[in-house]
Amino acid sequence: MLKALIFDVDGTLADTEAVHLRAFNQAFAQEGLDWHWTLAHYTELLAVSGGKERMLHHWRQVNPDLTELDGGAIQATVDRLHEVKTAFYEEAVNQGAVAFRPGVLALMEDARTAGLSLAIATTTSPANIAALLRSALGADWRAMFAAIGDAGNAPKKKPHPQVYRKVLAELGLPASECLAIEDSSNGLQAARAAGLPTLITPNTFTAGHDFTGAMRVVPDLSSVQLAHLREWHAAFQ
Ligand code: XBP
Ligand code: MG
User: Fold this and answer.
1) What ipTM was reported for this prediction?
2) Superfamily for domain range 17-94
């Protein structure tokens, strides 16, 4: 029986990646770097989950000799860039740059009314989650979620299943009684490796990903009702 919905954040709750991209480029400019990520390049870079990991990956691409630098100095630079990027992202979200994707809010409300638990499983930073969910759900957003896994408490990024395993442990439920809702191949792999049936709602950044193994792929949640999820979930077991 379906008892909990576990939502990814970036790309699933909201189309955030264009806002992340702008924030990365603003951080590079502010910190005096000549890096500038185009939309096409960023779409490729999304194969690397996590903002810090993504910047380090890019740095290694543009400077193959990076390993000769001091590891501590590299990490300090990436941490600083990420701090600046997060501030730009938060500011944009606070100014209303992103809204929930169609159907997300209605499904959350129906699930809660029916007594299901809601949870979050994301690789993104806690500050980003708070900014988005505060703007979409209001000041009391935290009380709506039984568990939140994020970059702060699950450092191994998707496709590693750590964040989903952590959320399942906090929910106290077996994976078979939960459903993950994701937008990307890395997210799908993480959820499946944790044993979770997974519904995919792709977006422009992830439309070309491989979704083999998904419970179902739908364009968005606008025509997905809780009754559908219960039916698909029961048939997938
Ligand atoms: C999303 C991400 C995140 C964001 C940036 O993946 O990879 O890294 O792009 O956020 P998912 P941070 O939706 O699978 O969780 O800069 O805070 O890492
Ligand atoms: Mg995502």
Assistant:
1) 0.90
2) Putative phosphatase; domain 2 (1.10.150.240)
